[in-house]
Amino acid sequence: MSTATEAPCSSEDRRIHVFWHEGMLQHDTGKGVFDSGIDPGFLDVLDKHPENSDRIKNMLSILKRGPISPFLSWHSGRPALINELYSFHTREYINELIEADRCGGREFCSGTFLNPGSWHASLLAAGTALAAMKHILDGSGKIAYTLVRPPGHHAQPTQADGYCFLNNAGLAVQFALDTGCRKVVVVDIDVHYGNGTAEGFYRSNKVLTVSLHMNHGSWGSSHPQSGSVEEVGEEEGFGYNLNIPLPNGTGDKGYKYAMTKIVAPAVQKFEPDMVVLVVGQDSSAFDPNGRQCLTMEGYREIGKITRSLADKHSDGRLLIVQEGGYHVTYSAYCLHATLEGVLNLPHPLLTDPIAYYPEQESYSIQVIDSIEQYQKDVPILKGI
Ligand SMILES: [Zn+2]
């Protein structure tokens, strides 16, 4: 008689289908003072814009040549058709993007440059996310990761924001709903509020959007949402947007606490038949765009928890969509760790080369407890 406690695994349980297209490297965001595009004239060395192709090249190569590579299958992405974009975005906004491309480019809002080549890369990012979702819906694979840029989660139905033009995850979610899924949960761990995705489904009770982010508030007219706990959705969607604004310095223990204390019970009650994890490695301890303290271990844990939610609720169906993450080396390592967690591997495949920042866990935990208190009367969390 076997004493093994692990359930038998099919090969699909230990496989991630990666969707990618090299055309996305053609989005050139330029140089300047950080993400401003400005050359003040007195600096010899200007930064590459943080959302540059180098970060994605390292993510690509660590997946191709890192120790996780035997667990991955590769698939080619594709450009989205213009018609496919109207499921999430308005025609007016899409026309605005097409026109900006035709005129040679435009800065839509702070740091958000549509340059020559950017529009085609945006279409590829959107189409690649759609292709990955279709792969899961067709039953060709259970877990897919879509390596895309420009990122998408700030792009709202009517406007660009925060380096994003098209909402790649939002389009994939709407496609799932249009193709027979009843309810989709989106868990967004990018360090910034996933305001675009939240806005797209703010009046829907078919999509539970949950965002764990740095407490950065609104950042102007392109990002009017504050990401606060008060933004819980409207009309039919009341109670179906959960914001978890975490204090600066929240790290592995704080994120795990929020995932187990708030996210998992909400997903349990929602009973989704599709799980979408929106990942940004800008929640790491070394990101120039974030002030959180996640390390590879924290990302691994988030991957594990999300996988267990998918196994429990959506028959293991899980789409992972790439967003931010701007440290050129550590973002790649943290992506590797996230996917290790998603694969539920018994031991880490890579050690963390640089983690050493301390985490102020007691304050984060206090804040998460107070968020939980605030949200306890929101329908999705009532009685838990
Ligand atoms: Zn971000």
> What's the Cα radius of gyration?
19 Å
Taken as a percent bin, the fraction of beta residues is 5-15%
**Annotated CATH topology:** Arginase, Chain A
User: What is the arithmetic mean of pLDDT?
Assistant: 95
What is the second-level CATH architecture?
A: 3-Layer(aba) Sandwich
Q: Could you spell the SSE succession in H and E letters?
A: EEEHEHHEEHEHEHEEHEHEHH
Number of domains: 1
Helix content: 25-40%
What is the straight-line distance between the termini? 39 Å
Per DSSP E runs of 2 or more residues, the count of β-strands stands at 12
> Number of helical runs?
10
**Associated small molecules:** zinc ion
Which class do the helix and strand fractions yield?
alpha/beta
CATH C-level label:
Alpha Beta
Describe the largest sheet.
Answer: 8 strands, parallel
Strand order of the largest sheet: 4-1-7-12-11-8-9-10
Query: Could you name the ranges where pLDDT drops below 50 across 5 or more consecutive residues?
Result: 1-8
User: CATH homologous superfamily name?
Assistant: Histone deacetylase domain
- The dominant shape is globular
Family: Belongs to the histone deacetylase family.
Domain Histone deacetylase: 49-340
Keywords: Chromatin regulator, Hydrolase, Metal-binding, Repressor, Zinc
Pfam families: Hist_deacetyl (PF00850)
